Amino acid sequence: MNTKSLIISQDLCGVGQVSMGVALPLAAGLGLTPYVLPTALLSSHTGGLGANTYLDLSSEMPGILTHWQQLQLQPDGIYLGYLGQNAALQWQRWLPKFSAPLVLIDPVMADDGKLYKGFDAAYVEVLQQLAYRATVLTPNVTEAQLLLDEPLVALTEPSAVMALAKRLHAQFHNAVLITGVPFHKQIAVVGVDASGATLALAQPKEPGHYFGTGDLFAAALATGLLKGQRLRQAAATAMVAARLAIKATLTADADPKYGLNLAGVIPALGKQLP
């Protein structure tokens, strides 16, 4: 079986096991061929590590993507994570030029009822346009509401989150997994596959907050799908990946501000994937 290839495009942080720092080792360690396109270089991630530096790399993207097309690269998948305004505009222009069977978009822009710093309504509009190109969307509840231009309200009932996922599926005509849904002492993923069939998966919620969990989930999901898993199975694999990384971080008594400990995650997932 030929090795599957995956474009990974998101920010790269010098300090903090998040974003590209999670996705690249996971995809490569599980046997994919990654094509890496960083959207920005940060001295550290933006959660609790002080005033980080930020270098926008979006001006390099057209040259890189032009070269890739000259190389006649035909990736099996594209995974877009945290982009930033300029990089999102670049992908709005370039995504139609690719015909990858899998386009997974994690529309990282908001949480807990508010946009992240530096994002505005114009950014939401660009991600809405990108969402039409996705085969799989992985927003949290707030991001899902923004994509639909709905009021930003807390949803505590799984039935309400499922209804939100169905509206996203109807709007963008793709598979949807709404992530990070709190349910009693569990954390759930609720969604709809490409055919409209619903799915809901949950696992125990570990104490604390861990940066990079969503990045790890999306990267593991993309990897599972490219390795032949169906959406439900790939989502279950991605949830296992997140839980293993959190447990490893807790066991190592590591400061969660620095992101996830991936020790043991890749070997464990390797046993579950084809």
TrEMBL record:
Pfam families found in the cross-reference section: Phos_pyr_kin
Keyword ATP-binding: yes
GO molecular function: kinase activity
Keywords, alphabetical: ATP-binding, Kinase, Nucleotide-binding, Transferase
E.C. designation(s): 2.7.1.35
Domain Pyridoxamine kinase/Phosphomethylpyrimidine kinase: 78-251
SUPFAM superfamilies according to UniProt: Ribokinase-like (SSF53613)
The name this protein goes by in its record: pyridoxal kinase
Source organism of the structure: Lacticaseibacillus chiayiensis
